[in-house]
Write a structure and sequence with these properties.
The complex is a heterotrimer of chains A (94), B (195) and C (97).
Chain A (H helix, E strand, L loop, with lengths): L27 H15 L5 H9 L3 H6 L2 H15 L12
Helix pairs in contact in A: 1-4, 2-4
Chain B lengths: L3 H20 L7 H12 L2 H13 L1 H9 L1 H7 L11 E6 L4 E6 L8 H4 L9 H6 L4 H7 L9 E6 L4 E6 L11 H5 L4 H5 L5
Parallel strand pairs in B: 1-4, 2-3
Chain C lengths: L11 E4 L18 E12 L1 H4 L8 E10 H5 L5 E7 L3 E3 L6
Antiparallel strand pairs in C: 1-2, 1-5, 2-3, 3-4
The chains are: A mainly alpha (94), B alpha/beta (195), C mainly beta (97).
């Protein structure tokens, strides 16, 4: 069934905010999430298609509410928990 | 978008995850910093602009660029990036065709040549609309095209990455290749600007 | 000797109509639509299978396929090009149900 990421042709998202502050990351954690994703792909802990799948299967309202790198972190966490690399819920107590 | 509180929470979670992965021997302690530094040092729209300026001044290079983008940019020292193998397709603007790139399903983008992608490229607004009403989207970027120019939208749905080759502006015959490169903008390489 | 390609540039194809229960790289706006093959793009593991963490994903040719806006949306003068795995494509006259 259709997933929230599959937005081509949808209406309702409004005008495009064409401004760009040219900042690749807006917090240190965003850069670290970006780098963790690459490192885990290189290590073959998961592949890029699994990573995309984990973003796409977010609950639609949560997907839309999340920032770009919040989606990435959600996907990394979901896959690492599913594969038993980290214990489920262990990051809730950070 | 998240507030300061959410930022503090996720920041702690990311740090904890890093320490767990290091402890378990999966991602080494310095790896994250090395990846960030490598990315920020190697990915820039200046790279794409150099490719464009070369194509504007060297017809044989342009021919190779349009035939096999990855091999041609490799000549300038820009290895095709990405964790997986990626093909590069350069789409040439002409007096009858204007190209624009998008990834409607996620946010695929040629990072090495264009640098980190702007927020709007990853937004639902851009991804949903540009395949449906590209002229309206281009107008929001201040771009209007003559009626007889056809728009092609390239939706990056697999492992090919796209870059637009803008048209060389009129009146630039006397400019050197480095000077030409300074004219090329990141949006020009996406297709949301003319140059 | 490379395998013979299923589609050649200029071939008219229709995209698969199936709405799969898993990850796919055929956006819903381009399902069941007529398009024209631009060129083969190289082989890649099928994302639909690979996304399930399976290591038996078939390696398929990916084709750039050009669609007219009128065929996608019923209006518009632009084209949209998508990169689509062979599994997503059928010959134009084939039954795609």
């Amino acid at each position: 069934m259709a997933r929230m990421n599959d937005v081509g042709g949808m209406t309702g998202f409004g005008a495009i905010d064409t401004t760009d502050d040219a900042e690749p990351f807006h917090a240190d954690w965003e850069a670290r999430v970006f780098a963790l994703q690459r490192a885990l792909l290189v290590k073959k802990v998961f592949n890029l298609d699994e990573f995309r799948d984990a973003i796409e299967t977010m609950e639609p309202a949560a997907y839309l509410a999340a920032s770009y790198y919040e989606r990435w972190f959600h996907a990394i966490r979901t896959l690492l928990e599913r594969k038993g690399v980290i214990e489920a819920g262990v990051l809730d107590h950070a | 978008m998240s507030g300061d509180h959410d930022d503090a929470v996720i920041s702690r979670q990311v740090r904890l995850l890093e320490s767990l992965l290091e402890e378990r021997g999966i991602v080494g302690g310095d790896t994250v910093d090395e990846v960030i530094d490598g990315f920020l040092a190697g990915a820039s729209p200046v790279n794409g602009a150099k490719v464009v300026a070369r194509a504007w001044t060297d017809p044989a290079f342009k021919e190779r660029l349009l035939a096999d983008g990855a091999a041609a940019v490799g000549e300038l020292g820009f290895a095709a990036g990405g964790v997986q193998h990626q093909r590069l397709r350069v789409a040439e603007n002409t007096d009858s065709v204007h190209n624009v790139i998008v990834c409607t399903l996620c946010s695929c983008y040629p990072l090495r040549l264009l640098g980190p992608s702007p927020g709007w490229y990853k937004s639902e607004a851009y991804r949903s609309r540009v395949v449906r009403e590209p002229l309206a989207v281009l107008a929001e970027f201040g771009v209007t095209l003559p009626d007889d120019v056809k728009v092609t939208v390239w939706d990056s749905s697999a492992e090919t990455r796209y870059m637009v080759l803008p048209r060389r502006p009129a009146g630039t015959d006397g400019l050197s290749e480095p000077d030409l490169a300074t004219l090329v903008t990141r949006n020009g390489l996406i297709g949301t600007a003319l140059v | 000797m490379p395998d013979r390609l299923a589609y050649a540039p200029g071939d008219v194809v229709r995209t698969y109509r199936h709405d799969p229960p898993h990850h796919t790289r055929l956006p819903r706006y381009a399902r069941g639509k007529l398009g024209v093959v631009v060129e083969p793009e190289g082989r890649a593991p099928l994302a639909d299978i690979r996304s399930q963490g399976r290591d038996d994903a078939p390696v398929e040719m990916v084709y750039a396929v050009r669609f007219a806006a009128r065929d996608l949306w019923g209006e518009g003068d632009h084209d949209v090009v998508l990169d689509l795995s062979e599994s997503y494509l059928r010959k134009a006259d084939a039954d795609v149900r």
